[in-house]
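$ fold --in a.seq
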Amino acid sequence: MSAADASTPAALAGIKVLDLSRVLAGPWCTQILADFGADVLKVEAPGRGDDTRQWGPPYLKGPDEEGRGESAYYLSCNRNKRSVAIDIASPEGAALVRRLAADADILVENFKVGGLRKYGLDYESLKAINPRLVYCSITGFGQTGPYASRGGYDFVAQGMGGLMTITGENGGEPLKVGVAITDVSTGMYATVSILMALRHAERTGEGQHIDVSLLDTQMAMLANQALSWLVGRQEPGRLGNRHPTVVPYKTFQAKDGSIIIAVGNDGQYRQMCKVLGVPELAADPRYVTNADRVVNRDGLEARIQELVADEEVTPLVERLVEAGVPAGPVNTLEKVFSDPFVEARGAVHEFEREDGMKVPSVAYPGKLSGTPATFRRRPPFVGEHSREALADWLGLPDAELDALAGAAVIAQRGEG
């Protein structure tokens, strides 16, 4: 199911999140919180909004919508939020955000280190008015250390964090992953950290400052590769689609496309040999155990490639899977989103906008039986909820909202 019944309790119902982040890591984090019922106010610069609103094409534009529309990039990480357009560079705007922070449970920001201090929106300033506030700072290199003052992007972190030395073909150029994986993972680590801090705050009344960086995250994501270096001082290098310590575990070229064969143990290896019609290969002393296969990988992988070359991907995958051997095709995105898995698992949710436009969204992947993710709001326009949200959180009357709008401190969609 892509959305829960309206009567299903939300895990984070009643939690207020002030989102001062933009681009991907921060918005990815706050979207997860919003999916589970938190009331997320996305604070944006009037008129311009989140940087990613301009990161296209492609853009989604309604028939009567002015301008270029919303970028697919922005739409990927901003559902279930309300947008308030506030000029935090003005004293009045900064004061307004401080009032919101006094009522918030969580604040997420990804300004450069110290960038919010001049507005009185740093952790120490806000802790003084809201001691239970969970304040999460997401940066490229952390609040401390030799690179704290640098700005950071996913691409830089992938390079500095070692991922690009283990991605790509042997002897080829270093490659980044095809999605901003460090940003996404940092957003996920931030979410986990926030929920732990929130549990502590609920139990004790004490908030705290969370310092999450792209480079720290990228180093943690190296997982077994990091430990290979720390334990054995081994530089794994780039292996393409090969696995450093499991064989065969790579792509092979079939007659009509690429197939992944991922043999995780000796039993699966024997089954693969049967499917490929070479049971004798399972008894070859060069390949009996995984340790043997790692040492002699070149000869074995070449032999498997010969056997696979005249096969068609789909029937071969079916035979391997039937025999208990993990295998699959290398799909284009068109094939990914036309797979019956998508409908069966509710992997895509479609919002319908007021102008009739369909706004697609890739659903939160975890399926919780009691408090599932829900998809209540499409990604908002800049400042779409400025008046509504400020009235909800702060009880501001129309006269005060009019005065703030007249002074260009806030803007509603269409006003700035």
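$ fold --in b.seq
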Amino acid sequence: GKCVLTPPGVRRVIVELLGPRKAKHLASSCCGGAGLGLELWDYLRLRNPEISFCGEEQSRELCDVANLYSYAYGVSAGEIVERDVLTIPEERERQRYDMIVMDVPRGRNVTELCQSTDPRLYGFTKRNIYADWIFIQDALYRLSEHGSAAVIVTPGSLIRRNEVSLREQIVVNDWLEAVITFPNNLYPKDHTGRELLIFNKAKKRKGKIIFLDISGYCQRTGRNVHSLTEEGIKLAKKVFDSAEQIPGVSAVCGREEIGENAFSLKPLQYIRRTGEKEIQSGITLEEIAQIVRGSQLLKKSDIKESGAAFFINIKDIQNARLEFGQADRIQRTSSVCKAKFRISKDDILLTSKGAVLKAAIVEANPPEAYISGNITMIRVDQRKYDPYVLFEFLISEQGQIALERIQSGTTIRIISNASLQTLKVPNYDLARMKQIGGQLRRNQERYYREITEATTRFQKERGRLLDELEELT
């Protein structure tokens, strides 16, 4: 079987955070060679000499490896068992362990059909579920009423809309103690970041969750491979023990604030940047605008040089302005030419997918153009808000931080319509905002007009001078 080892720095963090606790029965699910679980077991037995260890792994080969490691560590009370976490556990397995550790296998994180008979998914009503949430729910199902667990997941599990009810359940039950963001590239040949969820069914800090970002505390150890620094490990321990709020690093939040953010568990969404202003009086984007994601249905045969309409993609947003010069042309008969995808004056266009976040506002009298699936269109209800004021907020430092918070993905960033709807924007006096918005519009129009005139003058004078130069020969 293929075994991806949990990086040493990640193991160290888990041992530092859970090691001081008491436990009689420790389980390591998806244990591979059992390195993570045995390292924690070795630390725990200093205080709990009688602690038992159970390693669980789907692969028979890896069970044999784990057995060898278990013997080498000197585990006397324990076992390594062959088990697939995705199978429904028996009732007798419920609340069996005081502590569970799990590094969710990334290759197995695919959508699974929900089974109504699965007691771990009680109250979950969706037809499908991502496997990582079955793994998380498995740990919670088998954890004793006073138990703790450490589960390593990829970032999507913290924000996906599909499992929002399960995140809500965990927050309402007050079982989540901390969420820690690790650096990218800790796992060989895997650039995806990892998040550590620390659960505790007997929390001392009731109603509070610690969010911590140590993604910047890394050093390069090989080609595209990083490791967690000693400073990062110590910082995780310090913040976890003290619940200290450090700008740019950590935040401590209550259930109400997490509920307001659709039960997102993404640390970046709650951690304040140094010098960042908090929006005191805000409204959400869905209250003031219609949000439309572009069409994914374009066929290569739809693109024609003689096409009467344009198809807007990421490359066509340059320097906060929409440029049609290199845009694809399409036939009006294309399936993407639907009214809802057509741009209009004052629409704000955002890249919903890509490495860099780009934005533009549609100027007056645009040609017929439709947006691709990589673009999100924000059409402001001008009775409620001014589009130019909103645009300025979105491209400001504060707006960019707010948008970064709701992005998912690591290398390719994605902004979903659902997350945009909950984005908070400043609430201003409407009459004064419209007045300033009008001035912003006129200022931008004058700027672009003067750029065009200056460019024309430059090209004309350059041509004249080159003609003079030609006459000298």
